[in-house]
């Protein structure tokens, strides 16, 4: 049944804010994305904008969730540039459910997401900063990162196991260890890239994957 009335209007407004926040961060970077600018872009006061999310930090966590949904959607329909992306959909609240399905996280798909990140430094900065802050279990982003890491790890374990069955990776590899290594490489490469844009994030991770495949 379609949602109607104030609730549906609230969901639509929330999606609009997330789309706008995602656009602003892509365009100007995380550090320059102020609540004041976001509020002005969607025709709200700062208090009105935060009414939908609670705090600026909670808003940015939802931006990351929305970006995860964009990545999951692009993985299903094909590649698209940053200008073609849209956070959320009319079928539900952007960020209201875990982004993507475990089986959507293939090894090559994982690499493609890292490649796309190279054109959105503001989002990478936001991700790396909140990930570090979320090491404190009381941080608003802690549960998001716990769930995300579990979801991505499980998806990669499934993908690596599938490659082993297909003879594309050595059968004696521990899929769990390989998945954790891929995630650590990706996170480390992103942190290095923020300091030195010459770092090839996807290339570092892809090189490891290729080494494994050559051993099969």
UniProtKB/TrEMBL annotation:
GO terms for molecular function: DNA binding. It holds the Pfam family TetR_C_6. Residues 34-53 bind DNA. Residues 11-71 form the HTH tetR-type domain. InterPro entries: BetI_C (IPR039538), Homeodomain-like_sf (IPR009057), HTH_TetR (IPR001647), Tet_transcr_reg_TetR-rel_C_sf (IPR036271). Residues 82-93 have a biased composition (Acidic residues). PROSITE patterns: HTH_TETR_2 (PS50977). Residues 78-101 are annotated as: Disordered. Keywords: DNA-binding, Repressor, Transcription, Transcription regulation. This is TetR family transcriptional regulator. It comes from Nesterenkonia cremea.
């Amino acid at each position: 049944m379609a949602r109607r009335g104030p609730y549906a209007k609230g969901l639509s407004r929330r999606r609009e804010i997330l789309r706008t926040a995602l656009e602003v961060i892509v365009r100007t970077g995380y550090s320059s994305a102020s609540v004041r600018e976001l509020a002005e872009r969607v025709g709200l006061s700062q208090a009105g904008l935060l009414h939908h999310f609670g705090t600026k930090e909670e808003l940015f966590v939802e931006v990351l969730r929305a970006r995860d949904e964009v990545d999951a959607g692009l993985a299903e329909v094909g590649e698209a540039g940053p200008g073609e992306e849209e956070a959320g959909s009319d079928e539900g609240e952007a960020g209201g459910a875990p982004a993507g399905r475990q089986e959507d996280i293939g090894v090559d798909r994982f690499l493609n997401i890292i490649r796309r990140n190279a054109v959105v430094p503001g989002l990478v900065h936001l991700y790396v900063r909140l990930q570090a802050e979320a090491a404190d279990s009381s941080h608003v982003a802690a549960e998001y990162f716990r769930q995300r890491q579990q979801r991505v790890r499980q998806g990669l374990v499934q993908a690596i196991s599938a490659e082993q069955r297909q003879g594309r990776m050595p059968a004696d590899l521990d899929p769990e260890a390989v998945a954790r290594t891929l995630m650590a490489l990706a996170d480390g490469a992103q942190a290095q890239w923020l300091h030195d844009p010459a770092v090839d994030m996807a290339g570092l991770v892809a090189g490891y994957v290729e080494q494994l495949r050559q051993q099969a």
